[in-house]
Each structure stands twice: as structure tokens, then as C-alpha cells.
Amino acid sequence: MRKTLLLSAVLASLLSLSAFAVQDQAISEDSLGLYNSSVYDVLDPSVVNYGGGDPGTNKRAARSYNSAPPMITHTTKDMVPITRDFNLCKDCHVQPDLIGQKITAGMPIPSPASHYVDVKKGQLHMARWNCTQCHAPQAKVDVLVKSTFKKAK
Ligand code: HEC
Ligand code: HEC
Predict the structure, then answer these.
(1) 74 C-alpha to center of ligand 1: Å?
(2) Mean model confidence pLDDT for the chain
(3) I want to staple 110 with a disulfide (CB 3.0 to 4.6 A). Which of 64, 98, 139, 143 is the partner?
(4) pTM score of the predicted model
């Protein structure tokens, strides 16, 4: 009994010590986040202009790594947001008959077999409905944090 009491006293003092240590290292709000200012400042972030020409006029982008969702090379103007009743992406890219066929410039790349519940019937898996959840359009912007990530060869 005594031993446990002693042990808990030691533990309690250790805990309060570490609480002090944490307090000492408090992070100032000026150094939180990616912006070099207080978290209380309401900044006006620069507007991002997504580029890309009309579908069928762009070169395909290199994949960042094996099995990465490929980047959207064309403009997505008037195609987003995707809603329950509006999905233009599907109209061009749900083309199960084209899977494995030779795709020439200007042709929409068919969504791969992984995107369907039933490839033969061309039945899209609902988990793939919101294409832009995984496929991102492209923009030329200054990066907030430099990355040393290199594309896969
Ligand atoms: C009018 C037809 C059309 C529509 C609508 C369309 N695309 Fe495309 N998409 C294409 C064509 C054609 C390409 C071939 C590359 C190019 O020209 O940009 C392509 C390329 C892509 C690629 C690159 C694939 C790869 O393997 O390199 C992705 C990803 C993509 N589109 C996603 C989307 C998404 C997401 C939407 C909806 C926001 C969409 N597309 C709407 C026709 C279309
Ligand atoms: C949950 C994430 C996710 C969603 C949602 C999604 N995709 Fe993909 N997509 C991927 C990944 C990952 C790949 C690469 C897979 C691979 O290489 O097998 C891919 C590949 C593709 C490709 C390239 C096929 C090729 O042969 O190069 C196209 C085109 C495409 N998706 C279109 C779409 C469209 C259109 C939608 C919406 C209807 C969509 N995707 C929704 C993750 C997603």
C-alpha cells in the first residue's frame, strides 16, 4: 500500500514537471500555419487560376508515382462542382469499351477497370463519382513549402 502511494506521488510530481516543460515550449501563434503571420490575421490568398486547354488539346502529364491518380490536363471550367445530378467527366471518361485500346491524341482516356462495379456494363462505382476528390486540375502557383519530392522514372 505504502509502495503504491509512494509510486503515485512520484508519478504525480513527474507529470506536473512535464506539464511545466510543455508550458515552457508554448508555440507562439505567429509561428503557426504556413503563412508568416498571426493566425488571427484574415489574409486574402491569391486567386488560383487553373489552366489547361479544352479536352483533347493537351499532353498527358507524367504520373508522380506508380498508381497515382493522373492529373487532369485540361480545363475543368463549367465541369465543376460535380453534383449528384451533374457529372460531365463521366460523359467523356466512362468508356469501358476503350479500355486496352490504342488511345490517340484527342481521345478521352477511359477510366480504368478499377472505377467500375461492372466493367462490361460500364457501371461506374459510386465511390468514384466525385472524380475531383482524387484527380486534380493544374495551376502555376508559388508553392508555400518547397518539396524535394521527385517524380517516379
Ligand atoms: C469533353 C470531354 C471531356 C470531359 C467533359 C472531361 N474530360 Fe478529362 N480528358 C479528356 C481528354 C480528351 C483527355 C486527354 C488529354 C487532354 O487533351 O487534356 C482527358 C484527360 C483527362 C485526365 C488525364 C488522364 C491521364 O491518364 O493522363 C484526367 C485525370 C481527366 N481527364 C479527368 C477528368 C475529370 C475529373 C473531368 C471532370 C471534371 C473530365 N476529365 C472531363 C476529355 C474530357
Ligand atoms: C478514390 C479516388 C479516385 C476517384 C474518385 C476517381 N479516380 Fe480515376 N484514378 C484514380 C487512381 C488511383 C488512378 C490510377 C489507377 C491506375 O493507374 O490503375 C486513376 C486513373 C484514372 C484515369 C487514367 C486511366 C489510364 O489508363 O491512364 C482516368 C481517365 C480516370 N481515373 C478518370 C476518372 C474519372 C472520370 C472519375 C470520376 C467519374 C474518377 N477517375 C474518379 C483514383 C480515382
Answers:
(1) 6
(2) 84
(3) 98
(4) 0.81
Would you say the C-alpha torsion 90, 92, 98, 104 has a positive or negative sign?
negative
Instruction: Tell whether 17 and 59 lie within a shared domain.
Output: no
Q: Whose CA is closest to atom 39 on ligand 2?
A: 131
In a domain, 43, yes or no: no
SS3 label, residue 117 = strand
Q: Mind listing the pLDDT tens digit for each residue in 48-92?
A: 888 899 999 999 988 888 899 999 999 999 999 999 999 999 999
137 lines ligand 1 (CB under 6 A): no
Asked if residue 130 has its Cβ within 6 Å of ligand 2, the reply is yes
- Closest ligand 2 atom to residue 114 Cα is 18
Decide if pLDDT at 9 tops 90: no
Number of structural domains found in the chain: 2
